[in-house]
Amino acid sequence: MSLPDLYPGFETVTVDVGEVTLFARVGGPVGAPAVVLVHGYPQSHAMWHRIAPKLAETLRVVVVDLRGYGQSSVPAPEERHAQMSKRRMGADIVALMAKLGAERFAFVGHDRGARVGYRLGFDQPERLTGLVLIDIVPTPVMWERMDATFSRKVYHWSFLAQAAPVPETLIAKAPIEHLFQTLAGWTVDKDLSAFDPGALAHYRAYFRDPARIAACCEDYRAGATIDVEHDEADRRAGRRITVPTQIIWGSVGLPADAKARESGPLVVWRDWCETLEGGPVEGGHFLAEENPEATLALMQPFLARVAD
């Protein structure tokens, strides 16, 4: 299937990183400081098309599909959903960037991609020059805050984490309807107006694939089990992320709900990070598409300071 080219002038690469192959687009000056942009659920690398070209004016930019998503390969299932753990996804990104010539790089992640980023901040901080985490709080905190109100807002956490094949079977009955309801439901306007038709074409293409729907579910099963175990082990040991970290969240995004309203995501993240800054952007969950200008206005000065 031919999909719209949202990154004219960017190189297309498919890189074998050991367990999987990752699909990526690469642009910007060769030799410039590197940054990788990593998507979340239910999206792909296409979500960064309003952000990446601007960053590529001064940085070497890599936009990538996580294992199991988009046009990257789907790993075989393993016990305890380990194949979709954020630790393994983070190792993929390190291997990808090394093969592209970047031993150290900044990491920008949204949603599930941000969870990959902060896990990498614990596991391999020496690889990172900086972290930008968009519209999340740590995974254990999400589960701890699942009261009646918040659990309805983020019902997908529990739904997708149910044992196979329950969510896979239900989604397969109407995959595109499920996809579009999810996208629209987390925006300010509660519709698809924020999304470029070309980006929607990319999201539709992978969400029609039962194997990738299953991989998304495995991602969330890992998020309910092995990812929590990894995070809690670091929290019990008193470890904190030492990489300079910026937190960006939507004014009505997911972390703006529940008890996070009382303190704000920055207060939550201070227990997890040593060097922290950030702020809100007007918008819902999908800030890179709903409000790219304001997102860039926060992100670019930070990336300029941490560039290596």
UniProtKB/TrEMBL annotation:
<dbReference type="GO" id="GO:0016787">
    <property type="term" value="F:hydrolase activity"/>
</dbReference>
<keyword id="KW-0378">Hydrolase</keyword>
<protein>
    <submittedName>
        <fullName>Alpha/beta hydrolase</fullName>
    </submittedName>
</protein>
<dbReference type="InterPro" id="IPR029058">
    <property type="entry name" value="AB_hydrolase_fold"/>
</dbReference>
<feature type="domain" description="AB hydrolase-1">
    <location>
        <begin position="33"/>
        <end position="291"/>
    </location>
</feature>
<dbReference type="InterPro" id="IPR000073">
    <property type="entry name" value="AB_hydrolase_1"/>
</dbReference>
<dbReference type="Pfam" id="PF00561">
    <property type="entry name" value="Abhydrolase_1"/>
</dbReference>
<dbReference type="InterPro" id="IPR000639">
    <property type="entry name" value="Epox_hydrolase-like"/>
</dbReference>
